[in-house]
Amino acid sequence: MIGRRLSIQGRVQGVGFRESMIEVAQTHRVSGWVRNRADGSVEAHVQGDDAAVENVVAWCRRGPPAARVTKVDVADAEIDQGLAGFERRRTE
């Protein structure tokens, strides 16, 4: 099991990015969360099976059709044992 923290930049707010990411995460059976940031980026925490997490990260580099992802920063993250499922969090 691995954990990744993502910062996704570009045209990623107002294009259904969070909702689409929730669907992708559920399809790959990873847990975590996604939220908009006040600076216009999207932040996410993804954890689960190595291959599943990497598939979600790869999707984030493209995003949904209306998005225009320009940069994705990926960092290792601690596994949060309290996470179950994948949720949308409030903007921070």
Describe what this molecule looks like in 3D.
The protein has about 90 residues and is an alpha+beta fold. The chain has one domain (about 1-80): Alpha-Beta Plaits (2-Layer Sandwich). It is built from 2 helices and 5 strands. It has helices at about 15-25, 50-60, and strands at about 1-10, 30-35, 40-50, 70-75, 85-90. A 5-stranded mixed sheet has the order 4-1-3-2-5, covered by helices on one side.
Q: In short, what is this structure?
A:
The chain has 92 residues and is α+β, with helices and mostly antiparallel strands. It is 24% helix and 38% strand.
User: Oligomerization state of this entry?
Assistant: single chain
| Sheet with the most strands, sense and barrel status | 5 strands, mixed
SSE class: alpha+beta
The CATH topology assignment is Alpha-Beta Plaits
Judging by the overall fold, what is the CATH architecture? Answer: 2-Layer Sandwich
Flag low-confidence runs: none
Per CATH, the class reads Alpha Beta
